[in-house]
Amino acid sequence: MQKFVGTGVALVTPFKADQSVDFESLIKLVNFNIDNGVDYLVINGTTGESATITSEEKLKIIEVIVTANNGRLPLVLGVGGNNTARVVHELTTRDFTNIDAILSVAPYYSKPTQEGFYQHFKAIAEASPVPVILYNVPGRTAKNMSVETTLRLANDFKNIIAVKEAGNNTQQYLELIKNKPAGFLVISGDDDLALAITLAGGSGVISVIGQAFPKVFSEMIQLGLEGKNKEAYQLHFQLMDVVDYIFEENNPAGIKTVLQELKITSNEVRLPLVKASADLQSKIAEFVNNF
Question: Does the residue 148 lie in any domain?
Answer without folding.
Answer: yes
